[in-house]
Amino acid sequence: MLCYCWNIRKGPAASGDLKKVVGAIDGSVTFPLNSIPHVGSIVWIFNTTLVTYEPPQNGSSATFIVSQTHKKGRVSFPNDEYTLKLSKLEKSDSGIYRAEIHSSHQSSPIRSQKFVLNVYEHLSKPKVTIGLQNKMNGTCMANLTCSMEQQGEDVTYSWESKEKAENESQEGAIFPISWSLGKRNMTFICIARNPISRSFSDPISSWKLCEEVIEEKKGTEIHQVIPNICSHSGGNTLYDTISYTNKRTPEEDTVNTLYTIAQVPKQVEKSHKIPTTLDTAGLFPHETII
C-alpha cells in the first residue's frame, strides 16, 4: 500500500486552505487533521456526505458512519484520531474532499479543511518511435519520440544519453540525435514519469540506429576490363577481368577506370597459327576509352 501527501502543514489550517494528496490505484492515502479541543463531530464530504466521525468521549470509543456504500470497508480512522484513511484506491476516488468540524456545543461547523486527491496509475514501459530524417555522408540524423500507449495524466518525459561514463539528459518527449561514423557507440533511454511512478524504455544503440550508414561505408568490389589475347575466329573482342577492392563504387570514380579493347585481325584467323614472335605494336590496333 502506498500513501503520498504533498504540502502537508503542521498546526491548524485556515478554513479553505487546500492540501494536495496523491495516491496510486489499489494503494491508500490519508487526509490528516490535527487534534482540536471540544470537537463534537467531523463530517467528511466527497460530492455528498462520505462519512460522519465522532471522536471518543468520556471513555467511549470513537464511532463513524459511512454514508457512501461503495466506500464501506475502505474508510477508516487509524488510532481513533481525526485523520481519515482511504484504502484500495480507485481512479474515481479523485476529487475534492472537505472536512467540516463541528463543536460539541453548536451545530454549525467551526472550521473546515479541503483536500484535493489525484489517483494515478503506475506507468508501463514507454514506447519509442524512430523518425528517420537523413542518412548520408557517413552521418545519420533522426528524431526519437517517446509515448505511452495509455497516456494518463500528468505524464512527463525526459531522455538520457550515455557515451563512455558521461550522461546527458534532456527534457521533452522528442529527442533529436545526430551520429557520425567513427564516433563511439551511444545509448538513448526515455524516462516517463507521473507523480507516483516512473518507467524506462528499452535502450537504443546509435550503432543499431545508424547501421545503414555503416553498411554504406563498407568496401565494394569493382572490376577492371583488360584484354586476353587468344586464337579465336571472327575478330571478336575478348575480355578478361582483374578484381580488386576499393571503398568507392565505380559510379563514384568512373574517371579513373580504364577500358582496353583488343581485336584479333582476320589475317591471324586465316593462318590458323599465332606467330612465335608477335609485333603487337604494329599488328594490333588499340583504342583506349576513358
Automatic annotation (TrEMBL):
Keywords: Glycoprotein, Membrane, Signal
Transmembrane segment boundaries: none
Subcellular location per the Swiss-Prot or TrEMBL entry: Membrane
UniProt-listed InterPro entries: CD2/SLAM_rcpt, Ig-like_dom, Ig-like_dom_sf, Ig-like_fold
Gene Ontology terms: cellular component: external side of plasma membrane
BP GO terms, sorted: T cell activation
Domain Ig-like residue range list: 126-201
Organism superkingdom: Eukaryota
UniProt-listed PANTHER family: SIGNALING LYMPHOCYTIC ACTIVATION MOLECULE (PTHR12080), SLAM FAMILY MEMBER 7 (PTHR12080:SF46)
Name the UniProt record assigns to this protein: SLAM family member 7
